[in-house]
Amino acid sequence: MRDVMTGPVGRPEFIQAERRFVRSVLPGIVLLGLVAVAGPLLSYRSDVAEMRGQFQNRVVREARVYAEALGLHLHLLQTELQRVSASVGPDLLHPSELGKEDLLDLTAPDAGLFHAGVMLLDADGHLRWSDPPRSPEAASFATRPWFQEVLVRQAPVVDAIAPGASTFIVAVPVVRDGRVAGVLTGLLDTGGAVPGGRALGEHLELLVLNGSGDLFLPGAPPAWATRPEADAELRAVMREGLRRLALGPDVEVLAAATQVPGTGLHLVLAADETALLTGIRGRFLLQLLGVALLQLGTLVLFSLHWRRVYNLFLSMEERAARHEKMAALGGAASLIAHEVKNSLNGLKSATGLVPPAGDGALVVRTLNGQIDRLAHLATSLLHFGKPPEARLADVDLSQLVRDVVAGLRSLPEAEEVHVEVSVPEQAPLSCDPLLLATALDNVVRNAMEATVAAKDLGQVASPTVRVLAALRDGEAVVSVEDNAGGPTASVEARLFEPFVTSKPKGIGLGLAMTRQALEQQGGRLAFERIPGGSRFRIHLPLNGVPRS
């Protein structure tokens, strides 16, 4: 009989067949994979070019929108300053003589237009007053480019307050009698007082530069804008309008520049193309990974399906051979069992004629013990050849266990084995009493014989068998434990197969018949090793369900 540990998968012919299958299927899958990869490879370049074109148009369009919004905001600021400048007299009066409401509109902490403050300069660039108050500067503003531009143009100017500064000003001339009497200046906070003072998006940056290329918005420029080569690149963007900045191999920035209407400022909208292309590359790699996984999955599914079909074929072939063999064995076992039982009946009758006392008592007991053993063997062979059908009845499991253990006390081994029985006072159960008694008899008998054999080999000093019964979780459980050390690994792997035994005088039908008897009632037989021995568990549903 084939060993159960070496299934069809371990057979050399199976391995050879599997290798032939892989060799025949793998080239086709590889070819399909190459075709599948060719599509993403060919479309990658066109996808990148199309995405870059769309992204470029978006950046240019959004740069114009932001520039117009910033220009409109600055125009409103200039208009408000011009309105307030009309209240300033030709002698540049003290601010207390101006309208308090006008000053609040300009510098109120929560609603003012110029949170950084307002200054009034005379025609020589000296500070006449400011709100909030500030000490006059040692140097005047006369040399500042924006101040000179206001004097010359006599028109509002928006610029950085100083070259390289992050604060910029909105300056309007105070014109009296056709000349510039002073300059009213509003200071803007680049941290968020104007549109664009905050980040627009995860990969978009809005920068504002004056005509000289000084960057003063945002206050904290992006990392790439602080590189030494960034200044020249931004000036080039201001000249060309659209440019990809050459800032190193690890940075790809597309920048669009447009002039802020009504000012000398330039707005630059910079987009990090690295993130854009990373997304495209990531999608491309995911496509390739998906193709690879599909190929692998196809190969695995083909292999699993083929293996399943091949195993099913071998299993059916093996099952048919086993059924044929078992049918033949069953017929032979039934014939042998009948002949043996007839002979045993005669022997039993003959020993009954011998007086149980006297010199022949020991011989009679020995003969009766061997006759009982052979009768049990014949019954096992008979049941193996033609298993009885399960007939359910209401029984007391506790009493049934006690009766089986009491019946086994007549065995020759019973005197050497200490049998402990622990059962509830009553345990109602619906089962086939004969089949359950046979199953219990087989398991307890095996445990007693195994412990005595272990004692004879010097492995244990006190053979012990414990029988425990309980009702739990909707089923009856009977555990039979022994201290015989347990079966060998080779026997354990085939423990419930017919004619597999580790006992020198056994035929290996007890456990196979026990499992068969339990399964006919919807139950099962389980085995586990415990320290020093074995444990067999009989599980039966409280309301038995016979199986056909």
UniProtKB/TrEMBL annotation:
An example Gene Ontology molecular-function term: kinase activity
Matches recorded under SUPFAM superfamilies: ATPase domain of HSP90 chaperone/DNA topoisomerase II/histidine kinase
Keyword set includes Repeat: no
Enzyme Commission identifier(s): 2.7.13.3
Keyword line: ATP-binding, Kinase, Membrane, Nucleotide-binding, Phosphoprotein, Transferase, Transmembrane, Transmembrane helix, Two-component regulatory system
Catalytic reactions on record: ATP + protein L-histidine = ADP + protein N-phospho-L-histidine
Domain Histidine kinase: 335-544
Keyword Mitochondrion in record: no
InterPro entries on file: HATPase_C_sf, HATPase_dom, His_kinase_dom, Sig_transdc_His_kin-like_C
SMART domains for this protein: HATPase_c (SM00387)
Transmembrane parts of this sequence: 21-42, 284-306
Protein name: histidine kinase
